[in-house]
């Protein structure tokens, strides 16, 4: 596990910084969530969008991860808060698990703070937006 290394595309980085700056004016968004996301962006290695490895969790990618304690597998698409819908497995980048996943890649073990302690999960698969849409269409056919 690369403890302090995450990779983010420069376009996601810039869009997320713009989002954070505008969200500071919205009193409904918890400040600690904005600070957590800002901290993740500050420690990220930036790459051009075309150079982002396909196994890295980026905005609008779908990620599958295994809880290392329960062995349960979960799948979410990482989205902006206005697109979030847990019933459709779309998780906001501002949700603690969304912030925790951003920039990690297949094989990484991610720790995520919850009210009762920490959860640990391993990323087992990542599909970028086009791949994820293709998989959803294939599942419908």
User: For the residues shown, what is the average pLDDT?
Assistant: 86
User: How helix-rich are the residues, as a percent range?
Assistant: 25-40%
CATH architecture: Roll
Structural domain count: 1
CATH H level, superfamily name: Transcription elongation factor, GreA/GreB, C-terminal domain
For the termini, the CA-CA separation is 37 Å
Q: Kindly report the CATH topology.
A: Chitinase A, domain 3
Please render the helix and strand layout as text:
Blueprint: E1 6-9, H1 10-23, H2 31-43, E2 44-47, E3 62-67, E4 73-79, E5 90-92, H3 96-101, E6 109-114, E7 117-127, H4 129-140
Parallel strand pairs: 1-2, 4-5
Antiparallel strand pairs: 3-4, 3-7, 6-7
Helix pairs in contact: 1-2
Spell out the key features of this protein.
141 residues, Chitinase A, domain 3, 5-stranded mixed β-sheet, two-stranded parallel ribbon, disordered C terminus
Explain the overall architecture.
With 141 residues, the chain is an alpha/beta fold. It has one domain: Transcription elongation factor, GreA/GreB, C-terminal domain (Chitinase A, domain 3). It is 32% helix and 29% strand. The protein contains 4 helices and 7 strands, in the order E-H-H-E-E-E-E-H-E-E-H. Strands 5-4-3-7-6 form a 5-stranded mixed sheet. It has a two-stranded parallel sheet with strand order 1-2. The longest helix is centred in the N-terminal third of the chain and has 14 residues. The protein is globular. The C terminus is likely disordered.
């Amino acid at each position: 596990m690369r403890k302090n290394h995450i990779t983010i595309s420069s376009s996601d980085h810039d869009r997320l910084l713009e989002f954070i700056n505008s969200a500071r004016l919205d009193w409904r968004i918890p400040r600690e969530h904005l600070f957590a996301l800002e901290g993740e962006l500050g420690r990220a290695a930036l790459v051009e969008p075309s150079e982002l490895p396909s196994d890295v969790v980026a905005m609008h990618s779908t990620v599958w991860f295994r809880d290392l304690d329960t062995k349960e597998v979960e799948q979410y698409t990482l989205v902006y808060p206005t697109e979030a819908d847990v019933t459709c497995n779309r998780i906001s980048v501002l949700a603690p698990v969304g912030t925790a996943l951003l920039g990690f890649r297949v094989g990484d073990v991610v720790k995520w703070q919850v009210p009762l302690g920490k959860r640990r999960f391993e990323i087992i698969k990542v599909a970028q937006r086009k791949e994820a849409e293709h998989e959803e269409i294939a599942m419908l056919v």
